[in-house]
Amino acid sequence: MTKQSLDDNPRLEGADQGHQTYGEPTRPDEALPASILKVGTWDNVTLIRRRHPGGEESVSITEGATDHVLLWNPDPVAFDRQRRDGRDQEATAPAGTLNLLPAHEAFDWTWSYDGRPATSYHVCLGPDLLSRLGAEVGGLNPDRVHLRHGINFRNPAIQQCLQMMHRELSGNASGGRGGALYISSLAQVLGLNLLRAFGVEDLKASSRPGQLSRHEFGRVREYIEDNLADDVSLEDLSEVACLSTFHFTRKFKRTTGLTPHCYLVKRRVERAKQLLHDKAFADRGIAPIALACGFSDQSHMSRHFKRLTGVTPFVFRQDH
What is the β-pairing status of strands 19-22 and 56-61? Predict the structure, then answer.
């Protein structure tokens, strides 16, 4: 998964507050009214955080959005009217409810937070991601992978994925820095949950995965060791193994007992342990070692290092 942009603060020029109508497939970040903070955009994944000023807002997209849009409202919505498939549904939405807007499907939506400022979180998934997952996991025709609408629903697994993706991509101090490999994995999990809960066609039962062959795992392990300092993606590793991302992930865990991301972090910590005793780094601080091992900064390395070894890098260097 190639990262295109990741910035907490740039404001996107969205539509003016009030009712807006769009007559062709529209990017979600262009259609949403009022203030938008686009947290991050990767291949087939865009995350948006909206800060609602309060009051009534509405939008109509007669040809639908270009992406599947999943919306989470941590705050209650006082008024919510949605018109989809020629039918109106009007209700209040309690805090924590989710909405799913399938790509390329028309909708008309009016909502209000009863005059209170509020924040909502969006995950936009490209249809290609869902089509690929449907074909790889459930043997579906990729051209027939479609989602149904989801209106003011609750699904703990889907909500957890959404929150984890925002935490990872937002760059907040409380969030992680798992990189492309972790984001790819989260997008897969989220996509599978959406297909299971809202797929128009049921996924077929898939057989229990085997393990990677010795040669497959050898190629992947060599690639990881040669690229520990880089932002290794799930697509990179799958391509090395000549497998789809879904089947590679399952086979890799059957082989190692770890997800690709956990394995990568473990190998980075092992490399850090070596460099902490390397004479070339003897007179240097922890930060250069963190970067040389593929961590985003010293604190990122220290957190994982202590979790896996029980001590901080500084203590490890002093005691060994």
Answer: parallel
Whether 65 contacts 26, CB under 8 Å: yes
Q: Which residues of 4-43 are buried (b: 16+ CB within 10 A; e: fewer)?
A: eebeeeeeeebbeeeebebeeebebbbbbbbebbbbbbbb
Collapsing DSSP to helix, strand or coil, 48 comes out as: strand
Cβ contact 26:66 at 8 Å? yes
Q: What are the residues whose beta carbons fall under 8 Å from the beta carbon of 238, sequence distance 6 or more?
A: 244, 245, 248, 249
Judged by DSSP in three states, 304 sits in helix
- Report the alpha-carbon distance of residue 313 to residue 295 in Å, rounded: 13
Closest-CA residue to 73 (of 154, 172, 174, 164): 154
Question: What is d(CA 201, CA 147) in angstroms, rounded to the nearest whole number?
Answer: 9
Rama region for 218: left / alpha / beta (φ>0; ψ in -120 to 50; rest): alpha
Query: pTM above 0.90?
Result: no
DSSP 144: G
SS in 3 state form for 211-270? CCCHHHHHHHHHHHHHCCCCCCCHHHHHHHHCCCHHHHHHHHHHHHCCCHHHHHHHHHHH
Tell me the pLDDT tens digit for each residue of 192-224. 899 989 987 766 655 556 899 999 999 999 999
Residues 6+ apart with CB under 8 A from 70: 98, 99, 100, 101, 122, 123, 124, 125, 158, 162, 190, 194
**Beta strand pairing status for 3-6 and 36-42?**
antiparallel
Altogether, the residues listed in the chain come to a count of: 320
Over the stretch 126-167, which tens digit does the pLDDT of each residue have? 998 888 888 877 777 777 788 888 888 999 999 999 998 888
